Amino acid sequence: MSLIPKSHPRAKSLFIREKLVSGFNRGLVAKEGLLAHGRGEAFDYLLGEKTRKTAKRAITASAAQILLADLPVISVNGNIAALCPKEIVNLAKVSGSKIEVNLFYANEKRKQNIIRTLKKNGAKEVLGTNSRSSTTLPGLDSARRIVDKNGIFAADVVIVPLEDGDRTIALRKNGKKVITFDLNPLSRTSQTANITIIDNVTRAMELLIIECKKLQKKNRKMLEKIVKDFDNKKNLADNIIEIRNNLTGRLSIA
Ligand code: ATP
Ligand code: MG
């Protein structure tokens, strides 16, 4: 039961925060995940807490890139499992992607809790726990380098919501096309991914599902053109302008 009144001016943001706290209490989210969420909240505030034009552009490019992929894989961590488990499963179904659990702060119990949550939300198969099919991603220390041979290791496109910079760089170095959701346009992940969706994952994931359904009707050539015409560096720069305009607008009202 939520104690947040719907009339609260920051109700939406507080509801999202509550989801994360509930995820923490259910053993899905790491303590550090709560802090990472706080960093995201701060950037969402600067963005005006809405899906901007740059995010919409990146969502269209992402949908095209995923539909073009031979083996797209969605990498899931605790925060994502707490915030949008149903959407992850729907995105996988609509786009033919595999789902793999990969944690920054490895913990077998937490991994099992995440898998259970995804299965409860309709996932048929979740990779990332079978030690017989695990291998290592070169260029990374720690448990994060352990990936599934049939999942992230073999993928040509990896969707990594709320990812750490080291891992994004390692995925790129291993030849993967990386799509991320990250509210901070300045993070290393945002800067190194092929496509960065600068938006709250709780708003943007659903939009990506809708866009995948829409673009399924397009032919390969058209999808390739969408990807080719998208410039991530330019989109990130445009996002900084969106933030600046939002802040200037607020100051002039005050
Ligand atoms: P990097 O390692 O890429 O330089 P970082 O160290 O600043 O980034 P991490 O904790 O590694 O940050 O990654 C978490 C990222 O996820 C942050 O950039 C944060 O802004 C972003 N984030 C947190 N919550 C959300 C959310 N709900 N939607 C989208 N992005 C989010
Ligand atoms: Mg980091």
Distance between the termini: 36 Å
Across the major sheet, the strand order is: 2-1-5-6-7
**How many DSSP H or I helices?**
11
Largest sheet: 5 strands, parallel
Strand fraction band?
5-15%
Unreliable stretches: none
Bound compounds, each kind once, are: adenosine-5'-triphosphate, magnesium ion
Estimated structural class: alpha/beta
User: Cα-atom Rg, whole angstroms?
Assistant: 18 Å
Order of helices and strands: HHHEHHEHEEEHEHEHHH
Helix content: 40-55%
Notes on the structure:
It is a single chain. With 254 residues, the chain is α/β, with parallel strands linked by helices. It is built from 11 helices and 7 strands. It has helices at residues 11-25, 31-47, 53-68, 78-83, 85-95, 108-120, 165-173, 188-192, 201-215, 220-229, 232-253; strands at 72-76, 98-101, 134-136, 146-148, 157-161, 177-181, 195-197. The strands form 2 sheets. Strands 2-1-5-6-7 form a 5-stranded parallel sheet, with helices on both faces. Helix 7 links the parallel strand 5 (157-161) and strand 6 (177-181). It is globular, with a radius of gyration of 18 Å. Magnesium ion binds next to loops.
